[in-house]
Design goal:
By secondary structure, the chain is α/β, with parallel strands linked by helices. 50% of the residues lie in helices and 7% in strands. The longest helix has 24 residues, at 376-399.
Amino acid sequence: MPFELKLAITKIGDLLLSNKISQDEEGNAIPDIDLEIPDYQRPYKWTAKNGIQLLDDISSAKIANKETYRVGTLILHHDKGSTYYIVDGQQRIITFSLLLKALDNESAIRFLEQSLAENLYNMRNIPETYRALARRVDSLTDEKDKNDLLDYIKNNCELIVVITGDLSEAFQFFDSQNARGKKLYPHDLLKAYHLREMNGLDASETEDVVKGWEDLNQKELSALFSDYLYRVKEWTKGNKAWELTEYNIQKFKGITGQDNYPYAQFYKGAYAYSDSVNHSAMPFVSGIRNLKSFQLDTPIVSGKPFFDYAKHYFAILKDIQNNDKYEGYYVNDNDIVKTLDLRKYKNGVGNRITRLLFDTALLLYVDRFCPERPTKTDLEMLNRFLLFAFIWAYSLRAQYYNVGWLSAQNYIMGNGMINSFNMYKAIADADTPISLLSELSGRVNPLPNDAIVDNAANKGDREEMDEEGVYQNHLHYFKVNHFMEDDE
């Protein structure tokens, strides 16, 4: 069936009370509209404040005698039948439904009859927003004022509607002017794409996958893809990495079930084999370690493996960034990280960029060389690498007054500064931890004292410790590990 795109306009009353779209491009109504919120959609993030703001905006438009008040864009995915899935505009549609219900409790709103995912946002924000709107409506003591407002919302508030039969195309029509809305971020789009690739799973498996995704902190999940995974993929290939957007998320779409090229067969086979072994009794009976199903610099297998991939790297990054003595498997009670975890090294753009470079290098090393349950030897190698990664990343910080993304990208690409080289490519190209550490021992060099221009780095006594024995200046570790040329 060829791709079709329809543009239409609908009044709020027609859409939510009469279940139709007012008119398409030919001026015809589109009847029998069943609006549904698909599984991949984000929860209801609007709060009572957003709901009241929308009501205030409508009231202002009414007072100004605006004959038509456009309230945004609604993007729908329609495959067949009467079901139209909301791709963008969910927050407004839910809020308008609650507002109509608050104004006329007898209104039959079919959209509100569907069950929504039971997550914290939906369970908290929907009833709170409704109560806030109901209180505001109840404050209208004149019944005529209430009826006039209801009539204005039903007949004068309009939505631009975009209807498409192709989901991936639908995402390209997000309303960039939807200032009060919450647009989908790249990781949300990836979720939608990979859910479509899971046609072979039964409903309960799909629900488990979606729940596992939604249980993760969404802000941190977004940062995982945008700040870490995307940049690793680019840097290991020798490219600069700026921003993950809806226009370059193809890097995470991966190999589909229909791809039958030799390279695709290899990666699908590798995933299938490791997944089969890990879900069998073999690791327990034989005492072997679980097989890793992923590598950061290789293609992803689409569908359910993508969600396993996201959870896998979410957990590894959490482990790396948690320096607790007893939690996690990789970074535990490390003295360098104790200093880097001080508030003064977390504040400011330059400090955050430098720490991201450090953490990302550790993430790639762990991914390539550390098993799920590292041995003592594995951890000794990791700690040796951690020192090199620290000196490499914080040599950038020490040599710049102000570190921004341009200077960081140039440093990674090799801009002539001391210790400027592509650490990520060095890790990805190494066959063993020993060969990597051997190469780094020749590439990571001491900093001359006159090369250190960062005032924050130089400020204070490098030997100063707090009451818990944490050194207050990270250059202490340059000195004690002989990475400063003025060291005696």
